[in-house]
Amino acid sequence: MNNDSIRIGVLGELGVGKSELVHRICHPQAAGPSSVSSWAGPTVDILDFERPDRQGHVWIEFIVIPSETRHPRSRQMVYSIGLDALFLVCDCTVHRSFLRAAEWMEEATTIGGLKDVPIALILGGPTPVDWAPHTALARIIEPLVETYHARVLNLSGYTGNLALEPRQRQLIHDFFEAVVRHKKPSKTL
Question: Which residues neighbour 43 within 8 Å (Cβ) at sequence distance 6 or greater?
Answer without folding.
Answer: 19, 22, 36, 37, 63, 64
